[in-house]
Design goal:
Helix content is 39%, strand content 16%. The chain contains 29 helices and 26 strands. The two termini are 53 Å apart.
Length: 719
């Protein structure tokens, strides 16, 4: 950035010093770098120019200048200037590879305000599809670590995602910014170690997510404590003598322990101590003397009594016994649960606690019990919760108890809130996170990822899906209009796989997003064609074809998306139109819809019209365009790697002086031509890598030899 006084500063991922220990590149998190992100035409912050470099390794490929005074003159017709710059749009045009890229060089002023917001608050970031909310949250973590490093370390921060796929997808962002030890977990990892895999009816899963479950397990736990009502004396056998303990005195000790602060285990230890003292008081003088000489000898005699009065419990053992006993459930339910709800919670327990299988809905309840029994350490000074709009009250409690101070960044989109705990307002989420810190809700105005053509189609769902949510302003054009492929149920899977393979053949990451009703037929078609593909359910995402459910798609992005049978997606969820809205907005470039019925799951809505020919009726593939013909703005068929090489052979370079500083007024000139032999060798290697990558991502390994043989035949047949 150049300020109005002529000073020039360079900003990057990390601070860079020259051989004389002079700072030549400033860390983007440093306060002095703030002006680069905040400067607009309305408030230039003392800057004349912002220059954004595009680099690969140590080579500058290109740069983009933003002269703020010129911007003021050029955008007089716009309401304000905080939309995307050329650098951001270029970033969005790059292929997605299954891992989220950082956006340091493209952070806009409004985003940067959220990134550097004060830490001592509960910050909610509402953002529609493609507004960058996840990237902003992760960059906020990096910014906080840099600017609060005296009080905050990477081990003090927790990032919670909705599922393992999402966590793997975002795991590379923070290391790319230099932050390597931040703990990233999915919401289903917050529990004691147990065997998972139990299926659960939706109504039971919702019940177990209800905040009332916290009261039920609390009453159930302490319902295990105490003497039977008819027992008046407790006897201990010690050294051949019996010691009688008065039941009323024991009841008083138990009441004292229950009123003392602490966990179930800590209170149990206190009771053991008090009972030991009571034994000393009640024993004969000879026995008391013997106890003083070897107090540890009392333990075998006291253990059975302790197990009756205040049993030692683990969270899995207690919850297994509670859910397996109708009587205990009824006693713990109190007035907060109906008889029908108690019946829903009751289940037959496994013979052993080690053999018990637990559902996803059980996990947050287990965490609640673990906290009551042993206390879950509140060791995190800042917690980020992504896709928080779908978490149950019990899951939110599990997250909240890990915070030491109430500092949170919560991100999501109410319009994408689906599942058993779909919400219409953020207050329904934050009320389950007890907090004394200030609360702030920030909304992201601009959508950067989803192409305008795609979002305009998806936005038709918003009046039904989320009428109170304001849609983001989409600022990016896509390479093509969405295509709707009408078919019949017999050919639906074949059509979806064909479209996906076409996109994958051009080096794009592809998601086939299909409802459960179509999953088997799509998998069968993929196997029948020997197509290489990844399943999001197994945490596998990457280049080529990915098979994703609408629920798994949330928060992910792909170059191309093929949505199968929208009407069935709508039918899968009580907020099915929101689920379809999620599915349609996962693409950064191309969208295809394969369907027998309505492409938007809106049976009463007018048919979607083909934007290429107004008034031509339902949108269908243009018969004038052959299946293998690409739109005018399609990728170079050689793919991104070879294009990059060809651009390197032809593009200008920016000279950098030996001390590492770019010349303040760099001379841009064509690079020297690469020697022919070296260039040919590199082209051969890169072309081979491109072909190998394409094969690996789209074709089963057993067909590779056949494909390469056929490629040779096709090349020999060329004129």
């Amino acid at each position: 950035m150049d300020d109005e006084d002529g000073e020039r500063l360079y900003i990057g991922h990390h601070a860079v010093f020259d051989d004389d220990s002079e700072l030549v590149v400033i860390n983007w998190q440093a306060p002095v770098a703030t002006r680069f992100y905040e400067a607009t035409h309305e408030d230039p912050c003392g800057l004349r120019l912002k220059r954004t470099f595009q680099c690969k390794g140590n080579t500058i490929l290109d740069f983009d200048d933003l002269v703020l005074a010129q911007v003021t003159a050029d955008i007089a017709e716009l309401e304000t200037f905080d939309g995307p710059g050329d650098a951001l749009l270029a970033e969005l045009e790059s292929n997605r590879t299954g891992s989220m890229n950082d956006i340091v060089r493209t952070i806009q002023a409004a985003q940067f305000d959220i990134i550097r917001a004060p830490m001592d608050q509960l910050l909610v970031v509402q953002g529609g599809p493609g507004t960058g909310k996840t990237a902003i949250a992760l960059h906020r973590v990096s910014w906080l670590l840099f600017n609060h490093r005296e009080q905050l370390s990477a081990q003090d921060i927790l990032i919670v995602g909705p599922n393992p796929t999402f966590t793997r997808y975002t795991r590379l962002v923070l290391p790319s910014l230099g932050d390597t030890s931040v703990e990233q977990l999915d919401i289903h990892q917050l529990h004691p170690p147990v065997r998972r895999g139990r299926s659960e009816a939706p109504e039971v899963a919702r019940l177990k997510g209800d905040a009332r479950m916290a009261g039920l397990v609390l009453r159930g736990l302490y319902g295990r404590v105490g003497l039977p009502d008819d027992q008046r004396t407790v006897r201990l056998d010690f050294a051949g003598q019996k010691v009688a303990l008065d039941a009323d005195r024991i009841t008083g000790l138990i009441a004292r322990c229950q009123s003392t602060a602490g966990t179930y285990t800590e209170r149990r230890q206190l009771l053991r101590q008090l009972l030991t003292e009571l034994v000393f008081d009640s024993a004969s003088e000879r026995l008391a003397d013997e106890l003083r000489r070897g107090p540890q000898k009392l333990r075998p005699a006291l253990d059975p009594v302790m197990d009756r009065l205040w049993p030692s419990l683990t969270a899995p053992a207690f919850l297994r016994e509670l859910l397996g006993s109708r009587d205990r459930l009824i006693a713990a339910a109190g007035d907060e649960f109906t008889a029908r709800e108690v019946a829903q919670l009751h289940r037959r327990a496994a013979d052993k606690v080690s053999e018990e299988h637990w559902s996803d809905a059980d996990l947050a309840v287990l965490d609640e019990v673990e906290h009551l029994v042993n206390a879950v350490p509140a060791r995190f000074s800042h917690i980020v919760v992504d896709e928080a709009q779908d978490l149950s009250p019990m899951q939110l409690r599990a997250v909240a108890r890990r915070s030491s101070n109430g500092s949170f960044t919560i991100v999501g989109d109410i319009a994408q809130s689906t599942g058993l705990w779909a919400r219409d307002d953020w207050h329904e989420v934050v009320r389950h996170i007890p907090n004394s810190l200030p609360q702030d809700l920030q909304s992201l105005r601009y959508g950067y990822r989803v192409p305008r053509q795609v979002f305009e189609l998806a936005a038709q769902l918003l009046p039904v899906a989320a009428p109170d949510v304001q849609a983001p302003q989409v600022v990016r054009e896509g390479p093509a209009e969405p295509e709707i492929h009408r078919t019949n149920s017999e050919d639906r899977a074949a059509q979806a796989v064909s479209v996906a393979m076409k996109h994958a053949s051009h080096g794009r990451s592809v998601a086939i997003i299909c409802p459960a009703s179509c999953r088997d037929e799509v998998e069968e078609e993929l196997r029948a064609r020997d197509v290489a593909w990844r399943a999001a359910s197994a945490g596998e995402l990457g280049p080529g074809i990915n098979l994703v459910s609408p629920q798994e798609a949330k928060g992910l992005e792909f170059d191309s998306v093929v949505v199968v049978e929208p009407e069935d997606i709508v039918a899968e969820d009580a907020r099915g139109h929101r689920l379809l809205y999620v599915a349609l907005t996962r693409t950064t470039r191309y969208l295809d819809i394969v369907c027998v019925s309505s492409p938007l799951g809106l049976p009463d809505a007018p048919e979607v019209e083909d934007p290429r020919s107004a008034g031509a009726g339902p949108l269908a593939p243009d018969p004038a365009v052959a299946d293998d013909q690409e739109p005018a703005e399609a990728d170079d068929p050689w793919g991104p790697v070879l294009r990059e090489l060809l651009g390197e052979l032809q593009a200008p370079t920016v000279e950098v002086s030996p001390n590492g500083r770019a010349d303040p007024t760099p001379e841009v000139r064509p690079s020297a031509p690469m020697p022919q032999g070296k260039a040919s060798e590199r082209i051969v290697n890169l072309a081979a890598e491109e072909v190998a990558t394409l094969l690996r991502d789209t074709v089963s390994p057993k067909l590779w030899a056949s494909v390469m043989s056929r490629v040779g035949d096709l090349l020999n047949d060329q004129p």
